[in-house]
Amino acid sequence: MRGQTPLHEAAVRGHTAAVERLLVACPAAASARRQDNASALYLAAENGHEEVVSLLLDAAPGEVLGVADGIGNGPTPAHIAADNNHAGILLRILKATPQASQAPDLKAS
């Protein structure tokens, strides 16, 4: 995917140690988006990687979560966690950012 960073790749695959190292080296990487607007948090939530989600939320809770974090203003990490039945991840996201429970999926049909 165009614009995918090493952090995106580590988040997709659930490589916790790599995510940890990448965030230490470059904390700003947590807010990087791919061309489709997906963040590392979105990808980790989609793939059920709870430890990675926790690391990303701890690194930059205000930057990696929000209405604009959905792909193209579509589903947010909270939406994708709920859709994929990742209850632990959904709870972690809502605990870190309660307003996520009210973020609309602007592309839902």
From TrEMBL:
Renumbered ranges of ANK repeats: 2-35, 36-58
InterPro entries: Ankyrin_rpt (IPR002110), Ankyrin_rpt-contain_sf (IPR036770)
Keyword Endoplasmic reticulum attached: no
Keywords: ANK repeat
Keyword Transmembrane part of the UniProt annotation: no
Pfam families to which the protein is assigned, alphabetical: Ank_2
Domain of life of the native organism: Eukaryota
Stored SUPFAM superfamilies: Ankyrin repeat
UniProt cross-references to SMART domains, sorted A to Z: ANK
PANTHER family referenced in this protein's UniProt entry, alphabetically: NO MECHANORECEPTOR POTENTIAL C, ISOFORM D-RELATED, NO MECHANORECEPTOR POTENTIAL C, ISOFORM H
Protein name: Uncharacterized protein
Source organism (scientific name): Chlorella ohadii
